[in-house]
Each structure stands twice: as C-alpha cells, then as structure tokens.
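Justification of computing resources. Each target in the renewal requires a structure prediction run like the one illustrated here; the chain below, 120 residues long, is used simply to show the kind of job we budget for.
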Amino acid sequence: MLDFSLNKTFSFDELSKDVQNDFLLQLGNNFEFYLQEFSFKLRLVSYEELSEELDAFFGNNLIDEVEDNYILELANDIVLNGLKNPPIGSEGKHRTLAHHYLHKDMLRYDIIMNKYIYSD
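Resulting structure tokens:
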C-alpha cells in the first residue's frame, strides 16, 4: 500500500514504481548522479498555487489547455478513482491541469537535493 503521508520525506526506493519512472524521465539521459542525492517530500499544493504555476507556464493558452478532451477525461477519472500517483517535481502537467479544472488542491512530490558525501 502506498504511503501518502503529507510532509513526509521519502527515499527513491520508497516511491511507487510509477513515480520512480516519472522522476527518471524528468532527468532524461542525465545519469551522472546517485539516487541517494535526492529525497522526495509529499505536500499538498493549493489550487491557488496550481493556478499561478499554470498561468506562468501556459499564459493566455491556459483555458484551451484545461478544456482539452484528455484533461477532461483525466479530471473525470480523478473524481471517480482519486489521484493514483502524485506527480513529482515539474512532471505531471496533465494532472495539474485536471486538478485546476476541478478547482482542487493536488498532492505532489517536491524534489530535495540531499547533502551527500561520497567516499571511495
């Protein structure tokens, strides 16, 4: 069972496989890091904060993006089934748009760079 404790910090290994994959996709081909360098804090992002982020990202196109059929279907799925996997970092624009459409706050993992000391 997934742990959705607010403000809890998770290691990479404690994240669901889907969230792990979302994180790795964000990094692209940049594999010059150790997963121990990162922690992930689950927080509740307010509808107001989501609105500000989306407005900054999409600008005048925000209304068109929110009314996209995929976003409307995703919003309906969230109403029926809840949010299956909170997005991580800047990933998850579709889920963010769906929550904005629903006028709901959203869970999201923030990425934290750990102070990690390497030894050989």
